[in-house]
Each structure stands twice: as C-alpha cells, then as structure tokens.
Amino acid sequence: MKRPPPPWTPSPPALRPAFLLSSLITTAINSSLSSGTVPPSLKIAAITPILKKPGLNPDNPNNFRPISNLPFLSKVLERVVASQLKHHLSDNNLYETFQSGFRSNHSTETALLKITNDLLLSSNAGNLNILILLDLSAAFDTINHSILLTRLETTFNITGTALSWFTSYLSDRNQFIYINNCKSPTAPLPQGVPQGSVLGPLLFILYLLPLGHLIRRHGLHFHCFADNFQLLISTKSISTATHSILTNCITEIKSWLQLNFLKLNCDKSEIKIIGQNKLTTSIHNVTLNIDGFPVQTSPHIRNLGILSDQTLSFSKYIKQITKTAFFHLKNIARLRPSLSPTAAETLIHAFITSVPIATASSIVHLQKSSTNFNTSRTPPPIYSPTPESVNTSPPSSSSSTGSPSPR
User: Fold this and answer.
1) How far apart are CA 220 and CA 19, in angstroms?
2) Which of 269, 284, 300, 369 has its CA 20 to 30 A from that of 151?
3) Residues in domain Reverse transcriptase (predicted)?
C-alpha cells in the first residue's frame, strides 16, 4: 500500500472545482502529446522507501521498495498515454501471450490457473514435470532507456511524435528521497522506470518481450507475472538431455539479461518436480546451476503466494490459510458483544470468507462457524444448523481467489 504523497505533490482536492481547470489540463495534455515533449516539472519524483514485506530488517536497504510519488498532472498525462498505448498493443496483438502482469483481465489468479492446469493435464498423462521459478533483482531500476526506445520503435512500431514523447518522458528525469518529513538533494535518474508511475509497469513488460521468444526456441513452456518467470518442461523420464535443455535455456536467459542490464535473483530461484506420487517418489534431486549458484529441487515452493507440493494437493497451503482464518474468527469473537450483526458480517467477509480456500470441506467448515458466530452473542458449537437469514457468501465466490482447486 502506498503512503500518502509528500506535501509538495499536488493532489486531486487541490484541483477543485474541476470544471474551472479541466480546459487548462486538457490543453496542457494535448500540448504535450502534439509536441512530443514532457515538461521537466512532471519528471521529478519523491521517492518514499517502503518495506517489501512486514517484519523485514529495516537496516538493509535491499528490503525496501523505492516507490515514486509523482505530480498529479503527470499521472493524468500518463493515463492518457497508457490508454492509447494499450489500444495499440491490443489492436495489433503485440502483448506477450503468457505475461499476466500489469494487464487488464490478467492477474496472479489467471497465471496460477494456467500453470496449474498445464501441470495437472501433464501429470494425468503420466509425465514428470520440472517447474523452475526465476525472479529478477530490482528490475524496474535497471532498464536501459536506449534499449527500451529502440524496442518501442522496432518491435512495437512506435515512431514519429509518439516515439519523441517517450524519449522526452524517459530523459532528464530526477528524483529525491522524502522520508520522515526530510528531503534529500535532487539526483538524476539515468536508467529505469519509476515504480508508482502509470507507464512504468507497462513499459517494463514491453522491455521483457524478447525473453519469451528466447524461451520458446528451447521448447519450454513458460508463464510470467511481471518479473517472475515460470519455466516448465514435461517428460516421461528425467534424463541427461532434459538437464541439458534446461541448463542451455537458463544460460541463454542469463546472457540476454546481462545484455539488457537485468539480473537474476538467485535467492528466489526454486525448482520443483511435479507428477503422480508413484513417479515423484523415485526421483532423486535435480540440481541446476543458476548464475553460479546450485539450486536443488524443493518439496514445497511458494509460487505467486500459493504454497504447493509435488502432487499439487495444496494440503499444506490449505491447512495454513484455514488456521489463519480461524485465528481471525477467534479474534473477532472477542469483539462480538460490541458488534451489530451487520458489522460482524462485514468483518467476517473481510477476514474469513475472502480467504482463498481450495476445498469445499474447508469452505463449509468456515461458513458454518462464521454463521453461528454471527447469529449469537455466545457462539454455539461449530456444526449447528445454518440460519438462512445470514449471508455467509462473500460478494464473489469464496473459492475463486488465487488458489486453484486440486484434482
């Protein structure tokens, strides 16, 4: 979650009443688009360092994500350009088919469903599957502007004034650190795209497009979510040839990343063998050398937040999130005497039914507990009848978030 922007950043309330300024904003945006330039005042960002995850060591700079807070007018301009760019990419079928990051109607859920479906179909056919998870280090911050602009022109056919606009957008950018009401000196930003911007994520996935073509040449299946890559190879038996294909592909990926000023995050690289239990139990560890680091197979890996095992039963993950859901239910129960039924129902939907549960039995268990809790100041036994008057179904299906149903 982004922190509130620093005081210097113009915000929407400062632009009220909107109808008085709409013509000025429209004129400014049209002037920028027609001239192919971005004003310098819109190319300065206040960087707010935010921990990537709660509980990380704040003394380690690598644990922070540099979020850019940009002027409000800059974001309006970027939204206009992003809308036109997305139409161009969609109309000309220029997106990477298997990139689910930063795209409409794509998400971690669609990425997980695709890769899990492929794994299940292959496993049911009696194949062994090797799934490799790769991650990039500080990818947004190392994008080379010259390479990106060349790629926009040659691969995506963005030329003329449009290309001049992107050249102006990327050049002469500046930033400063804003933390604890203190501001650092302004420094130039010679590479990278700003995190927290509208165009940054879209330009990032366009920058990575050739990587998909490279992986296809090696005959591997793959799926991406932003800077996370999943490589998949299916085989009847894991042989020297299989190991050679994977090694050659990863070596070429590493070389391509180096040429494009990107780097693998070996600490987050993982390998897992997936298949029917009778096949996976007889397989010894597979070790791959990724950027000089030996990476061995793991019985459990966390893929886009979902913990899975070698047979895709998701049993450990289901047990973990069910335990978390009941933990929240217990905490809400302590507040129940002070809550109205409506307030209690809201909390239940926020903390319980929104949890991605992958089995029907877990869903029924939680729903019965939540219903009984919400219809009594003193919660009755878990499996008492469910009153029809209480709505325990969340706004959308409680099994439709992120966790694919195991078969």
Assistant:
1) 54
2) 269
3) 31-295
Any idea which residue has 């998909």 for tokens? 212
Cis peptide before 5 (omega within 30 of 0): no
User: Dihedral angle at the C-alpha atoms of 214, 220, 222, 226, nearest 10 degrees?
Assistant: -30
Rounded CA separation 115/308 (Å): 12
Report how far residue 53's alpha carbon sits from residue 41's, in angstroms, rounded to the nearest whole number: 32
Tokens matching residue 373: 């809790």
The separation between CA 406 and the C-alpha centre of its own chain, rounded to angstroms, equals 22
